[in-house]
């Protein structure tokens, strides 16, 4: 998400700049080993991003945002584009608790005060 878009999030002042978040994602992907195909991490300025303009793309979402991916695929079909492949990743810690970036920021804020 772009800095402008991030401003709408809870405790936005604690969210790293896009460049830092992008680098973290890239380092994570590099740690997975060789991957096939072109992988691009794109800055989002709105909930839709570039998916209605790209001929082909794939999307990684959480279970909580899966419905949004379905909406995007419906919009792609309406525009005559092929549906995206949607990858759903887990957001659960080993203890079974859901990982929430908002909760992490709130926790970090309360411990730093």
From TrEMBL:
Q: Offer an example of a GO molecular function term for this protein.
A: dephospho-CoA kinase activity
Q: Where are the annotated coiled coils located?
A: none
Identify the keywords attached in UniProt to this record, alphabetized.
Answer: Nucleotidyltransferase, Transferase
Q: Which Gene3D superfamilies match?
A: HUPs (3.40.50.620)
Matches recorded under InterPro entries: Rossmann-like_a/b/a_fold
Gene Ontology BP term (one)? coenzyme A biosynthetic process
PANTHER family per the UniProt record, alphabetical: BIFUNCTIONAL COENZYME A SYNTHASE-RELATED, DEPHOSPHO-COA KINASE-RELATED
Name recorded for this polypeptide:
Phosphopantetheine adenylyltransferase
Annotated organism of origin: Spironucleus salmonicida
């Amino acid at each position: 998400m772009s800095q402008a878009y991030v401003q709408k999030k809870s405790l936005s002042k604690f969210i790293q700049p896009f460049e830092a978040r992008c680098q973290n994602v890239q380092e994570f992907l590099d740690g997975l080993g060789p991957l096939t195909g072109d992988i691009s991490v794109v800055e989002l300025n709105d909930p839709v991003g570039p998916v209605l303009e790209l001929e082909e793309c794939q999307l990684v979402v959480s279970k909580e945002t899966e419905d949004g991916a379905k909406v995007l695929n419906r919009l792609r079909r309406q525009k005559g584009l092929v549906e995206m492949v949607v990858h759903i990743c887990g957001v659960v810690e080993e203890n079974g608790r859901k990982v929430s970036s908002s909760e992490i920021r709130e926790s970090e804020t309360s411990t730093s005060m």
